[in-house]
Amino acid sequence: MTQQRGSERQLGQIIYYIILWLVAIAFFLPVLWIFLAAFKSGGELVRWPPKWIFSPTLDNIRDAINRPNFWEYFRMSFVFSIGAVAIAIVVAFLAAYSFSRFKPRGTNFMMFLLLSVRMVPAAAVVVPVFMMYNAFGWNKTFHGMLLFYAMFCIPFSLWILKGFLDGVSVRFDETALVNGGSRLHVIFRVVLPQVKPGLVAAAIFNLIFVWNEFLFNYLLGGKGTTMIPVLLATGVNQGGSVDWSFIASLSLIYMLPPIVAIFLFQKYLLVGMTFGTVRGEV
After folding, report:
1. What's the per-residue H, E or C state across 197-266?
2. Cα 165 from Cα 98, distance rounded (Å)
3. What span, in angstroms and rounded, lies between the C-alpha atoms of 69 and 250?
4. How far is 208 from 229, CA to CA, in rounded Å?
5. Which fold has domain 68-277?
6. What are 150-195's pLDDT values in tens digits?
7. Which residues fall within 8 angstroms of residue 60, CB to CB, at 6 or more apart?
8. How far apart are CA 95 and CA 158, in angstroms?
9. What does the domain layout of the chain look like in residue ranges?
10. Cys-Cys with 118: which of 123, 155, 186, 262 at CB 3.0–4.6 Å?
């Protein structure tokens, strides 16, 4: 009986892993298609059934990077992603420390409100944001776009970091203060190192958001503030038809930085998605 139960359990695990692999492959197939299509000629790219064995070419990649203003758009994607996330992480960490340690009245409601605002679809707020930016004269300006992305990154970062800070014992703060440490010393030298996985997780999630954002960059941005998603949307038509070679090659180039970042920091991402949800002192 025990051996039979063990065999049934092993069979269940095998089926479970097979299902997981099938789901993973289904999600990975579009990425594989983009990767292969970037190195196919135009005729091979739209051929049906798909041609899996072909002579790769770099012409599509060269055409994408030689498009007007490509490098400017690519540089702005990095600048906005890194700059806005850096500002958001600093502000969110300090705010999360305040909410976690001092617990001002209405903390739970404020956290709920911040997260709820962040969950609102972008299309629902595009008109008031556009009118506000027109009133302030921030349309098509570098600082306007940078502050906008930082503003959008702060709520989610604050929500993640508060969960981490709630898991760090207050005794660390009390011990440092009793021994003559300042509040800044407690924040940056005692508490900050213990929530490093949360900082990295919040940064990566928000980097992906800013990196892929299109709507507000298209409406509020201008010359010198445009990112790659706008180029991808405005450059798809070539000669009256969809330029699939351009879409595939530019998508491949644009996917590589976040894929590399996630691969390098996957350990922190895993901890960030699990540890911050567990309440309790460390």
Report:
1. HHHHHHHHHHHHHHHHCCHHHHHHCCCCCCCHHHHHHHCCEECCEECHHHHHHHHHHHHHHHHHHHHHCH
2. 10
3. 13
4. 12
5. MetI-like fold (1.10.3720)
6. 998 998 889 889 888 988 888 888 888 888 888 888 999 999 988 8
7. 38, 39, 40, 245, 246, 248, 249
8. 7
9. 2-59, 68-277
10. 155
